[in-house]
Amino acid sequence: MADLSPKTSWTADDAAHLARRAGFGISPEAASALAAQSLDAAVNAWVDGGADRTEIDAVLGATADVVDEPARSASTTAGAVDAPAVPAPHPFLVQGNDAWRNNFSRAQAYLAFRMQYDPYPFAERMALFFHNLFATGWTKVNNAALMLDQYQTFRDHGLDNFDDLLVLVSKDPAMAIWLDLVANDASGSNVANENYAREVMELYSLGADNGYNQTDITQLARALSGWSFTVDQANAISDPTNPNSLTAAAGNFRVYDGSANPDEYLWYMGAAAHLPSMHGAGTITYLGQTFDIANPPSGMVPGEDALRSIVTSRATQCSQFLAQRLIIHFVTGNYAPSDLTDVAAMIRSAGFNLRSVMKTLLKSNYFFDAANRFALVEGPVSWTVRAARALGYDLATADAMTPKGFPAWSSVTDPYFEQAGMKLLDPIGPNGWKEDTGWMNSNTIRYRTMIAAAVALGAGAPQSSDAGLFPSDATRWFPTEPATPQDVLARMVALLQPAPIPTAVSDSWLQALWPSGFSWNATDPTMQASVRELAYLILCSPGGQVY
Q1: Rounded distance, CA 514 to CA 171, Å?
Q2: Predicted confidence (pLDDT) per residue in 399-408, tens digit
Q3: Where are the domains of the chain?
Q4: Res. 102 pLDDT band, cuts 50 70 90
Q5: In the prediction, which pLDDT does 142 show?
Q6: 289 three-class SS
């Protein structure tokens, strides 16, 4: 059974466990400060957030990426707008008005930077979790603004009621392109496109063949027909015939039902005064209930009530699906059927309110159980960001360097995230990535060692220490001078927080790194190299892959 009763007391080690699983790690000093609060108050604050965002918002708004962008050739496409020359230097804003600067690696870097420095790490952790659950891929969407707007939805609404989040994702422009809602035309004699209706049940809410059948897929596809988006002139400045040139907040959800178009362009950037007629008419029978898909309840769009019914008509199946995803991300991959049943019951009793669910889970004896410590292989994005938070600069120092902010992260994100097994923003399919042991194989661990070299050694490509991500002076990792090699080890373990390292292994490391005695000299290149090599060994060790 999963003991979901609240833990009655906690320690700095418990606080570090919370921060690893529900964030991206925490310093030993911060863990001690967090543990000084009551568990109830600390977890509530961790989940609810509310930290001062002044510093990070200022950095994100001013980050510069110096480039030299020449003028584009005039397009021969009818109605196209020529792109002007862009002088260098200029601010690179991922979601700015320079729409053609649609850079995938910069979008990845922006997200990694947010994970590293955001004072509300739990929102970033939940966004990463839901990016995997509602996996949507750049390869097909091919637009930075739409992908990052979807990710912002996960940040803003990842603790809402699950049915509310499910509806928001179903109305999301990136998802509409990714799973062909934009092509779902059930008007007249047209056959509805079933792609999204199938996946919303199989991958996003119920699980394969769990409480629905082919007729339900067909009926939900009709309910969601015509769900698409429009684009206004301000968000199509670069080329109003090309959907890949959309800018920030480019997509406005609409049901294509033949009504007047409040914007200038349809999703494929065709100008239109009226929306096409693509929504089906009449009633459907879905999951045993009847819905009039042309006349929704007040406050809903046509077909929305059918989609929302998943969490009520199939509450048991939906709660089990969600419980499994939450357990394998936040608790353990070695769960028993009774654990799944208990967490699913808790989800139902919380009315699928994710804020309540996460507070209960993260305060529980089940979450803090010793058997569940270091019981999950950490995903490569989280693993890299956690190392960066442990060994990197503080925000003010990083922002004073060149290049500063998230452009520096692109030296790590592209191509190392993909090679290590998680191409952030671009899963290979709508089923996302397998977690826990699914992250680890002989190829992905090879690339983890390359990331570890960048983080700990400042070596190889990327030259991350030159890019302003990690200190060139390893003594910055030590608030006080260590007196022995064991002190160095203790500090690096406290920062990187691997699973317990066998004493025989750590002793052999220290003997190899300091074979002729130890004397701390911050300016000695050999000392600096030995400290970095120890950090590298910890990151590459088996215990360094779990959390």
Answers
A1: 59
A2: 887 766 677 7
A3: 380-545
A4: low
A5: 87
A6: strand
Q: For residue 514, give the nearest of 537, 533, 491 by alpha carbon.
A: 533
In this structure, which amino acid lies at residue 318? Answer: C
Measured distance CA(302)–CA(186) in Å, rounded: 13
The C-alpha atoms of residue 433 and residue 19 are separated, in whole angstroms, by 22
74-83's contacts with Cβ under 8 Å and 24+ in sequence apart are: 75/239, 77/239, 77/241, 77/242, 78/241, 79/240, 79/241, 79/271, 80/239, 80/240, 80/241, 80/242, 81/237, 81/238, 81/239, 81/240, 83/238, 83/239
User: pLDDT tens, 465-481?
Assistant: 455 678 888 999 999 99
Q: Give the bridge partners for 231, in sequence order.
A: 265
44-77 CB burial, b ≥16 within 10 A, e <16? eebbeeeeeeeebeebbeebebeeebeeeeeeee
Helices vs strands, H then E, count in the chain: 25, 5
Q: List residues bridging with 100 in a β-sheet.
A: none
**Joined tokens for residue 340:** 């799944």
Which whole-number Å values give the CA distances from 416 to 286, 383, 436, 468, in the listed order?
A: 44, 12, 19, 17
Of 132, 60, 58, 134, the residue nearest 421 (C-alpha): 132
**Residue whose tokens read 């996460």:** 358
8 Å CB contact between 112 and 270: no
Tokens matching residue 47: 């989940």
What tokens appear for 274 in the block? 């009226």
* Length of the chain, in residues: 547
pLDDT at 85: 45
Burial category of 437 from C-beta neighbours within 10 Å (exposed 0-12, middle 13-18, buried 19 and up): exposed
Structure tokens at 271: 């100008």
Residue carrying structure tokens 């919380």: 350
CA-angle at 192, arms to 291 and 274, nearest 5°: 90
Q: Are 464 and 532 in contact (CB under 8 A)?
A: no
Query: What's 266's DSSP letter?
Result: E
CA distance 377 to 383: 9
Place of tokens 């410590």: 373
Alpha-carbon torsion (18, 21, 26, 27), positive or negative: positive
Q: Please give the span between the terminal C-alpha atoms of the chain, in angstroms, as a whole number.
A: 22
> What is the pLDDT, as a whole number, of residue 76?
39
- Residues with Cβ within 8 Å of 149's Cβ and at least 6 positions away in sequence, in order, are 95, 172, 173, 174, 248, 249, 250, 251
Sheet holding 265-266: strands in order across? 252-255, 227-231, 265-266
